[in-house]
Each structure stands twice: as C-alpha cells, then as structure tokens.
# Entry
Amino acid sequence: MPVLVMIAMVLIVSAIGDSAAAPTSSGPPVASASPSWCDQPPSRALVRPGGGAVTFPEVSYAVDHTGSRPRIDLGGSYQGVVDEGERVAVIMREPAGSYDRAAGDLPGEGGYSYQGEVRLDERAHCWTALALGSRLAWSPAGRPVWHVYLVLVPVDFAVMSVSARGRVEDGVFSALRVLADFLVTE
# Structure
C-alpha cells in the first residue's frame, strides 16, 4: 500500500509541476515564442507603405494553381508593435480595369474581400498569411492580378464588419488604417 501512495504522490507532484511550467496566454494566438515558422515565398512584391506604427518593409508571395481556384501565400518582415485589441488583416480588391474570366470576361466587381488575419512572429519580426483565396482578376494584359492591403483592424472586425460573403463595404474599408499595399501578379 505505501508504494501506491508514493506513486500517487509522484503523479500529483508531476502534474502540478507540468501545469505550472506550461505557458499560459490570455492574448491572441497570433504570436509565437518558438523558432520562426515564417518561410518566405519566392516572389517579391513592391510594397507601398501606409501609415502607422507597424511597417512591412518586405513582402513575398507565391500563387498555387493546384485547386479549383488559385490560392496565395504571403509572408515577409515587419517592424513595430501591434497594440492589444488590434490585429493585422489581409483585404484584397480587384484592381481597376481587371476582368473575371469565370464570369465570361465581365469587368471585376471591384469590391473589397476580407481574407483573414496574418500570423505574426514577434521574436523574428516576420509574418505569414497562407492559403488566401479571392476572386481571380485578370489584368488587361491577360495576367492574373490581386491588389492586397495589410490593414489594422479591431479584434472583432471579422464578426462585426465583414458580410457573410466575405465582403467589406467601401465605407468600412475607408475607415481602416492601411499599413501597406501591393500587387500580386504572375
């Protein structure tokens, strides 16, 4: 019987030690304290900086055509700190003059579409946004093109300001702080 008591005590102490050593987080799951997972896609984008305390000096991308619709992976470096209660999100827009081949070469709708939040690695100062999908817009030259915005949004933005179809109204978008924008082309 004393052996069982001893084993029980060891298990209890071990469980207490493990839970005390386990990291706890009350913040968002967008920061990483582990080694960086920010692999940079191969193509570079020319970034037009916006305004704000967070900047994105480098942006890379890759376009994957293996599915029914192209998917875009983004990544890069950033500088600055995102305040608590805010996130960096990706919003895309079909550029002026683009058209949609899937809709019989009709002009693109030109609306803004919410793609999701970026993952920030605060130790390595890098970020990623993977497997983004948006309507495929084609330039007048016949090349696919997406206009991408990195914007600062409140934590509840996706719930409060994005339509069921993933659209962001022009008035809502104009109230956001654009941190950077760039074109993704092939």
Remarks:
- Residues 3-35 have pLDDT under 50 and may be disordered.
- The longest strand covers residues 144-154.
- The CA atoms of residues 100 and 137 lie 5 Å apart.
